[in-house]
Amino acid sequence: MFSTPNRRNLQNLHSLRIGCWNACGLRRQFDEVIQFVTDHDIDIFLIQETFLQPGQTPNIPNFTLYKNDRISINSRRTSGGTCIYVKKALVHYQIPTPELESTEATIINLNIGNKTQITFISIYCKTHHRFNTNDINKLLNVNRNVIIAGDFNATHAAWNNVKNNQRGIQLNKFLNTKQNLKIIASNSPTRFSPSTPHTLNILDFAIFQNIPYNANTNVLTELNSDHLPIVIDVAMSKTTTHSTT
User: Fold this and answer.
1) DSSP readout, the chain?
2) Per residue in 37-52, pLDDT tens?
3) Which residue intervals define the domain Endonuclease/exonuclease/phosphatase in the entry (predicted)?
4) How many whole angstroms separate alpha carbon 169 and alpha carbon 162?
5) pTM score, whole prediction
């Protein structure tokens, strides 16, 4: 069911560029997505709310696609879903997603050189379900070295929001019980609401667990969604890992 590792490796990898974006429907703007990945030299692209159905595999040249679709029995309308595009030149393989209550996720392992393995998780926390920090805990327990990035639908000052919502309070309280975590978030809003244009939130960010590398995040005003894509540049040189505050 799950693929075997792609054996082509970038032996001298000094940096990694991660894209993350809630698409609100991937196929309708796929030409722009391909251009975005090319223009910004993305290595791994984590996407949420793909709205893909089983059998729909929009491929990006020189990338492998892994996805988990939301299967709706009672509705023909597609929604939800997560995916990860990863360069074929990287050593990678998909691993099973644990059973989750209010969260959707796609997971891959990536080998850096001959020793380091990092788990990447594209996450979408559903808006119309009770937020469950146990889902986040399960994902963090998939591996020792984990990067979770995506749409958490949670706001808190810990990741640079002006206001805290209930989900954000729950998530921040949970993260503060963990060791060796850091939040990688922008200072700029990642989501806007057409119905309330003055409400700008940072809902899209990353959680690094036991990742001893420096990282910085930029929000780009590209692609067509109510969320803006973020690009996380990771310098593959050791630094001190900080705990979440």
Assistant:
1) --PPPP----TT--EEEEEEEE-SSSGGGHHHHHHHHHHTT-SEEEEE-----TT-----TTEEEEEEPPP-SS-SS----EEEEEETTSEEEE-PPPP-SSEEEEEEEEEETTTEEEEEEEEEE-TTS---HHHHHHHHTT-SSEEEEEE-----GGGT-SS--HHHHHHHHHHTTSSSEEEE--SS--EEETTEEEEEE--EEEEEES--EEEEEEE---SSSSB--EEEEEEEEE-------
2) 999 999 999 999 999 9
3) 21-227
4) 13
5) 0.90
